[in-house]
Task: inverse folding
């Protein structure tokens, strides 16, 4: 026990495990994962979080698990201002903030879960580092939705919350926001036409896969213009071209390769202090198939 406390004291990175699944809207889950029963499909993000936790190296520092209900509450199907499961989402935000507050961690690694698990850690880091923090959102999608967007679900509104133009009830729960001039969307190539104009309107910067295939230089040049020495990186695994490997909920062709995505994050780490990293939206289809194979077998 003494050894464990010593290791914890030596680490400045909090590992935040947050298997949130409620951020994904029912309509998108039903359409993009039709091969699974809806109840199982909606919660496959939680299984993805468990797989991420299993494949990563053992963490010597503090780890917090944000509690997430496995069962839908009565109001789950109710949509208010584009969000389902509002009560559960707000409860998760409060639990995550409390978990972060239990540690004086300079860095936060978040394992999710849907895209919205970045909202709390990134805004907590914004409160800590102020204008020295930039955000790089590596994702096929912009996640700049509003209450009136065509693409539903809280996970499609994550960047909106971080820059302070999101859902008022959610934003009341957050510690700080990041100026959109210090937020870049990297690998962006899939969006709904109603949301895309928000990029220019709000002052975000966007880089397509074509901008970054051969070099990270355009993104690093942008980062230098912000004057920020610290960066929080969101990595949605659907950034990887689904024709190479399908890691996310949808089938997004034309994205970056695994090697290119890996290079992007590493290059950012070479020029700035990475104080936040989120890995999100992993949908482990083969693991789900394995659970079906093993279901009900004797001796298990």
Result:
């Amino acid at each position: 026990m003494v050894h464990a406390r010593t290791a914890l004291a030596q680490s400045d990175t909090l590992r935040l495990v947050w298997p949130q699944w409620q951020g994904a809207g029912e309509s998108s889950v039903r359409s993009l994962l039709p091969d699974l029963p809806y109840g199982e499909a909606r919660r496959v993000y939680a299984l993805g979080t468990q797989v991420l936790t299993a494949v990563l190296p053992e963490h010597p520092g503090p780890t917090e698990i944000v509690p997430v209900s496995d069962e839908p509450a009565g109001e789950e199907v109710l949509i208010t201002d584009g969000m389902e499961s509002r009560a559960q989402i707000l409860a998760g935000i409060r639990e995550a903030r409390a978990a972060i507050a239990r540690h004086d961690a300079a860095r936060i690694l978040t394992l999710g879960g849907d895209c919205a698990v970045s909202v709390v850690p990134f805004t907590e880091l914004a409160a800590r580092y102020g204008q020295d923090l930039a955000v790089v959102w590596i994702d096929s999608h912009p996640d700049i939705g509003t209450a009136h967007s065509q693409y539903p679900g809280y996970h499609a509104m994550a960047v909106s919350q971080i820059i302070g133009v999101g859902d008022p009830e959610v934003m009341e729960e957050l510690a700080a926001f990041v100026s959109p001039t210090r937020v870049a969307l990297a690998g962006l190539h899939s969006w709904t036409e109603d949301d895309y104009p928000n990029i220019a309107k709000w002052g975000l910067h966007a880089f397509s896969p074509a901008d970054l295939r051969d070099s990270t230089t355009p993104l690093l040049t942008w980062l230098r213009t912000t004057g920020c020495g610290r960066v929080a990186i969101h990595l949605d695994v659907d950034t990887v071209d689904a024709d190479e490997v399908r890691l996310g909920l949808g089938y997004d062709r034309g994205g970056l390769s695994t090697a290119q995505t890996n290079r992007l994050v590493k290059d950012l780490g070479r020029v700035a202090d990475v104080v936040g990293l989120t890995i999100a939206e992993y949908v482990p289809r083969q693991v789900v198939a394995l659970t079906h194979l093993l279901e009900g077998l004797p001796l298990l």
User: Anything to note?
Assistant: The CA atoms of residues 114 and 281 lie 5 Å apart. Confidence is low (pLDDT under 50) at residues 1-10. The domain at 2-294 is CATH 3.40.800.10 (Arginase; Chain A).
